[in-house]
Inverse folding.
């Protein structure tokens, strides 16, 4: 039997990203961009995901990364499927670890980096069992929130705490989520942490066509006051509060239109509500859209009615496009939206307050002169470089001293 190859300094580290599903959303776009743009001289990239996501074809077209579609990895809690997913992940991680070692890779230079709640829990458990030496989790938001069924709420927190105890590093898209995770003991003391914004190609949103030109291309009225929402149709985004708020707004400002780019399981119920409120000529459900910059260009104001968030990318996109944003004062949203300066924030599930804030935004059109410099933190390439520095810190010799890479601590 031949001895294992000697680890080579030139052999890239293996980074395995895992996300529950590649649907159209911020965490998914963030993860895809990272996988595509990590330095291939330093990192061999693998991306695992559950089936059925709209972005799956895009992932499979990235020629220099390995993709793994994991059939039993589903969003819903399904004990039998979850057990199958856990076994499959364990097997895949063992195989990838073996391949890394056979290629001459350093056994310490393997990372499993999980995203989203289901993949985050199962992926970290499987990585620990498979002997992966570095486990990282990105917090894009939480699956628990105030007002949730108490048993479900506690189940999710307990699961996150258990997974946190086997995690070596946490990345968060917002300071607020990171602080909450520490406060709830989801992140144990002494673990490496870093806030890295959910980056995007900012130029796509900064250099948009004039409003009139965009409306002509999309066949929208020039004199309408267009309100744009970009969100999936799930309870987290609370679309019913948005429809209720828009009904009040439309009664006071009859030239308003609401465009909703997105889709999801609540669509049929949303359509019923729109018909019940006789808003079918004023509310347009656009489905999933990939031309968000053009929609922003045609828009007067952007809205989001979420009950909870990590830090919504649509708020950053609105700021980059110089459009006021009206939303809920939850989680990381105030880290980009400064109330009264570039938009307005109201409590969640308060349709009348949301309607009032929308009307005020349409009248005042607040824009913060500091925003063009503030949004640079959300540049996509900056996000990737910061993640590389985070990986580099984890892969170097472990120390309890503050890291030069801006992490809190590195400790095993």
């Amino acid at each position: 039997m031949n001895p294992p190859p000697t680890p080579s300094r030139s052999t890239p580290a293996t980074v395995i990203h895992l996300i529950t599903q590649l649907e159209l959303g911020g965490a998914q776009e963030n993860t895809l961009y990272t996988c595509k743009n990590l330095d291939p001289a330093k990192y061999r990239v693998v991306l695992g995901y559950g089936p059925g996501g709209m972005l799956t074809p895009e992932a499979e077209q990235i020629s220099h990364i390995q993709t793994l579609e994991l059939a039993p990895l589903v969003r819903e809690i399904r004990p039998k499927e979850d057990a199958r997913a856990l076994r499959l992940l364990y097997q895949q991680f063992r195989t990838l670890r073996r391949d890394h070692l056979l290629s001459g890779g350093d056994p310490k230079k393997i990372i499993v980096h999980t995203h989203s709640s289901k993949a985050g829990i199962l992926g970290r458990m499987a990585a620990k069992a498979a002997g992966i030496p570095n486990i990282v989790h990105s917090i894009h938001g939480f699956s628990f929130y105030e007002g949730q069924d108490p048993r479900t709420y506690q189940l999710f927190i307990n699961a996150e705490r258990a997974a946190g105890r086997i995690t070596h590093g946490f990345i968060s898209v917002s300071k607020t989520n990171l602080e909450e995770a520490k406060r709830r003991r989801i992140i144990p003391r002494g673990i490496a942490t870093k806030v890295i914004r959910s980056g995007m190609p900012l130029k796509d949103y900064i250099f948009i066509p004039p409003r009139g030109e965009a409306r002509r291309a999309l066949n929208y009225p020039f004199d309408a006051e267009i309100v744009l929402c970009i969100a999936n149709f799930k309870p987290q985004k609370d679309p019913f509060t948005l429809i209720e708020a828009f009904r009040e707004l439309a009664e006071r400002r009859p030239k308003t239109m609401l465009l909703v780019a997105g889709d999801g399981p609540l669509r049929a119920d949303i359509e019923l509500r729109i018909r019940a409120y006789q808003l079918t000529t004023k509310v347009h459900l656009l489905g999933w859209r990939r031309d968000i910059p053009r929609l922003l260009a045609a828009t007067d104001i952007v809205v989001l009615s979420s009950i909870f968030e990590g830090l919504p990318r649509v708020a950053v996109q609105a700021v980059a496009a110089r459009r006021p944003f009206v939303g809920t004062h939850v989680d990381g949203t105030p880290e980009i939206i400064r109330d009264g300066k570039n938009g307005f924030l109201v409590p969640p599930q308060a349709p009348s307050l949301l309607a009032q804030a929308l009307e005020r935004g349409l009248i005042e059109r607040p824009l913060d002169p500091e925003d063009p410099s503030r949004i640079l933190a959300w540049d996509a390439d900056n996000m990737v470089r910061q993640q590389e520095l985070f990986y580099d810190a984890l892969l170097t010799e472990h120390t309890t001293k503050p890291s030069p890479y801006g992490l809190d601590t590195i400790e095993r």
